[in-house]
Amino acid sequence: MELAKMRRRFAREMLAIGGVTGNERLENAFAHVPREKFLGPGRWHILTPWSHLNVDERDPALVYQDVVIALDEDRGVNNGSPSLHARWLDAVAPQPGERVAHIGAGTGYYSAILAELVEAEGHVTAVDYDPGCAGRAKENLANRANVDVVQDNGCFWPKEKSDVVYVNFGIPRPAVPWIENLNPGGRLIFPLGVPSSASSRGGAMNAITIAVRRLDSGFAAWSGCPVSFIFAEGLTPAPGNDEIKNLSHCLRKGGWERVKSLVWKQPADRAHCWYVGPDWALSYIAVAA
């Protein structure tokens, strides 16, 4: 009973910190999923803006706060900021019966929350590149009939039409299936960014949130606050230096908050774009609903 109260208080606090109001379904999802189940064996390495704390005593009270917990310290993988995910989940608003692709699912904590939101008639495909994380996610989510776990390169998923694509690693461009397998009205959210070095593996991120909705006339888009995510592993094809340099320049100059649409595989007017990639762009011009 005390743990249930703790999870409920945690859910309310994470939504409040994330600026989310009036979303009872999301609050319930956070309150129902046991975060400690997804953290693996051994001591917990709790990361805060001020300290790194190794905890031998596995007291759930320590993880029901706005902290991240390391899952693989060598690769820089952690359990994610719950207040950030509260904001993102509210933005994409998974509904009962919808199909969700969770790309970069880690050990499955937010996959479980997504599964709560789409309910029994919906479905979540949780994809992770790392065999260790994918194996742990399979164990953690084994009791959820509406979730499948796949170990694969997330840039190749989803392989069928989806209502939500929820991406948890930084990348310098959206993968083709994330865009082209969105249903009408479907939502995509991902961290657009560059690695801290020329390597495509690990490292601190310089990224922003990009959210996309598929409309009949194109793709509406908006950008959010800067975020920090591990960079994509197994990125295929690898981004060229020009692509990374151009995106780095745009991130440094700012102005992403005025983005209103994503231009996909068609000519873009550079004069009205925040960023122009090889076959896509983020434009200041809105598309008709």
Provide tags for this entry:
289 residues; 7 helices; 29% strand; globular
Give an account of the 3D structure.
There is one protein chain. The chain has 289 residues and is α/β, with parallel strands linked by helices. The chain has 7 helices and 14 strands. The strands form 2 sheets. It has a 10-stranded mixed β-sheet. Strands 2-1-3-4 form a 4-stranded antiparallel β-sheet, with no helix packed on it. α1 crosses α2. The longest helix is centred in the N-terminal third of the chain and has 16 residues, at 2-17.
Condensed summary:
The protein has helices spanning 2-17, 24-32, 82-92, 109-118, 131-140, 176-180, 241-253; strands at 44-47, 52-55, 68-72, 77-78, 99-103, 123-128, 147-151, 162-167, 182-195, 205-215, 218-227, 261-264, 273-276, 280-283. With 289 residues, the protein is α/β, with parallel strands linked by helices. The chain is globular.
